[in-house]
Amino acid sequence: MKIMKVRQIENGTVIDHISAGKALYIAQLLHLVESSLFVIGSNLSSSKLGKKDLIKIENYILSEAEKHSIALISPTASFIQIQNYEVVSKEKSDIPDVIEYLIVCPNHNCITNTENMSSRFNIDTKTMTVRCAYCEKKYTVDDIKFKRLV
Amino acid sequence: MNNLISMRDLSKAEILHIVDVAEQIESGKIKVNISDKVAALLFFEPSTRTLFSFDTAVKRLGGKTLIMTGTGNTSVKKGETFADTLQTISQYVDIIIQRSPIEGAARYASEVVNIPVINAGDGANQHPTQALLDLYSIKKTQGTLENLKIGVVGDLKFGRTVHSLCQAMSEFNPEFYFASPSHLRMPGYILDDLDEKQIKWHEEREMDSFINDVDIMYVTRIQKERFADIEDYNKVKGSYVMRREILSGVKSNLKVLHPLPRVDEIHTDVDDTEYAYYFPQAKNGVYTRQAIISILLGEV
Ligand SMILES: [Zn+2]
Fold it and tell me: What single-letter DSSP state applies at residue A105?
């Protein structure tokens, strides 16, 4: 197999250890296509995961909200901050118990979809399910959609 | 306890406290007077029975009611937000009792206002006072809530009432027997919850196979609209109708419950048996709601 050299970035963020196959979805979530210089590595070999995805984004710092969403999509993800080609910080993803605002409840009859208000979901990291604090419906992470994060 | 929104919020101790207060209100041991209090009954979805039950509960405690009915949140006039409507009404009254077709509306209301909110039903989600009056009825007729065998019959898929009942009874080590048409079976997530709590349950085709073993038979309506084909409805309908004959070998303590209104799932020939309990059950709803209102207003 040919090893693709992924371009070094000068300043920005590397999202590493993404579950294989999830990078494109994360890139969509962050609206990278519209606004950023970025590269995706897919199905790279990883000693930890077997296969992993990776995203490098030039001149981009992830917000806490973005990190939480990424963590939900891929709990194995880690975040690396780059300045002047140097790693300045490395951080494992962390899923909070409660996520406000970010998640759109798939239940059309839920108050969070009929009123101008923030959603709130309780996260069960053991089963990777989320429960709407309002309509109380439970969803897997694959069922939910995220609000546009900008 | 500041609000009553969902059975999920209640501990076993809180459930038992509500049942206990209901008992003491019924027996006259506790006398509550809320003649200086006003309750707003906001029914954004019609439900005459639930409205009457709450209205009676407030009035039997000496309180006054202010009633607003209408469909959906569209009744909220002139573009005023739901939150503003609630805020305004909460300035006039001491407690809000709300029914809405929108799921989560009661939780949201409780976050918007500074007075207690009671959920009188939010779409297909929760109807906690129904679950609590069912528990009160079970306690009253069986003397205990612990270790009972409970049969549940009818539309178990869409029946919010039976979902809440399962949730609420789970604290008391019951054994459940379910019977329903195959496409109206108890949803997987409810069964998963029961498994998680190590509650025994059985799924049977018909109620005949367990009626002689249970302490409570909880019957719910099977709606015609749930069937794509009227033929299918007519085929299964008969299997889930309770008639007097079926009660010949039941336990002497058996009580038949039904959230009402019934259509024909309990034949009227059951009504004058010692097992019929659905009308007293409706009366228990008033005591239970009196108890909940008294607790939330800090009167007991
Ligand atoms: Zn929801």
Answer: P
